[in-house]
TrEMBL record:
Entry similarity comment: Belongs to the MIP/aquaporin (TC 1.A.8) family. AQP11/AQP12 subfamily.
InterPro entries: AQP11/12_channel, Aquaporin-like, Aquaporin_11/12
First-listed, main subcellular location of the protein, grouped into a coarse class: membrane
Protein name, UniProt field: Aquaporin
Coiled-coil annotated residue ranges, if any: none
UniProt cross-references to SUPFAM superfamilies, sorted A to Z: Aquaporin-like
Membrane topology: Multi-pass membrane protein
TM annotation in the entry: 66-87, 184-207, 227-245
GO cellular component, one term: membrane
Highest rank taxon of the organism: Eukaryota
């Protein structure tokens, strides 16, 4: 494939990031910081940005290989870590907050709904872009039937998504407490590495909203199998990270020394 096609994919992803940043600025300008509305808008914008870029990353992976996919994903993850603020575009982070007493069930449900709306609705924009076929890699992709990325038994897929999500969340929590130099870059590298490791097995989504926006209803698994792998698997992994990270033995391994949790220092 030509480098022109890769350049067009790159331009599309950069354009999505710029558009999302403009949308965040407008949301901040027209809505007060208090209340749920700006929070939900930020989640919807972050999810739309995430899913739009990841739709195009599918094109990159299919035509330029997993290595190119990994480089783009790493750079995008670093960027998102800098601009998303309190948004996560991922429902299980809010579930973790609820377990830690930082959020309510109502807020978890509303944030998840906003993320699903942003992630699923943005496909129409991506589809129109593909329909124009600016690049040879987009030919026939706008209305092509999608195929699932799940290449293993659904229960094994759920275990892979769950274990990788657990490792990813434990790494994030560890980095958050240790706060090393280049913390966000290290976190992005770990996340990207886990995605690449799971890529040929479950797809390496580690995010129920992202998986649903990109692969719901695709040929290769049933809707129930999709829920088992990408919702139950990932969410269980994330939820397990909360009590595991509190365990003294785990903290000693991850942090090097036994340290009290931040919320107990105060």
């Amino acid at each position: 494939m030509s480098m022109t096609a890769l350049g067009i994919s790159t331009a599309f992803m950069v354009g999505c990031c710029i558009a999302a940043q403009i949308a965040r600025r407008l949301a901040k300008k027209f809505f007060n910081e208090g209340g749920m509305v700006p929070i939900l808008l930020n989640e919807a914008i972050a999810s739309a940005e995430l899913c739009a870029c990841c739709f195009e990353l599918i094109i990159v992976a299919d035509n330029f290989g997993v290595a190119a996919y990994a480089v783009f994903l790493f750079l995008l993850t670093v960027w998102w870590g800098k601009v998303w603020g309190d948004a996560s575009a991922c429902p299980y982070t809010h579930m973790e907050d609820m377990l830690e007493g930082k959020s309510s069930l109502k807020e978890v449900a509303l944030r998840t709904w906003a993320e699903l709306m942003g992630g699923c609705c943005v496909y129409r924009i991506v589809q129109v872009f593909w329909w124009f076929e600016f690049a040879e890699t987009h030919e026939g992709r706008a209305f092509e039937e999608c195929n699932a990325d799940l290449q293993v038994n659904p229960y094994l897929g759920a275990a892979i998504e769950g274990l990788a999500t657990l490792l990813c969340r434990l790494a994030s929590k560890t980095l958050s407490e240790k706060d090393p130099k280049f913390c966000s870059i290290i976190d992005s590298f770990i996340g990207t590495s886990l995605v690449v490791a799971a890529f040929n097995f479950s797809g390496g989504y580690f995010n129920p909203v992202l998986a649903t926006a990109l692969k719901w209803g695709c040929r290769g698994h049933t809707n129930l199998e999709h829920i088992i792998v990408y919702w139950i698997g990932a969410c269980v992994g994330a939820i397990l990270s909360v009590p595991l990270f509190r365990m003294r033995a785990v903290r000693k391994v991850l942090l090097g020394v036994e340290q009290p949790q931040k919320d107990k220092k105060e």
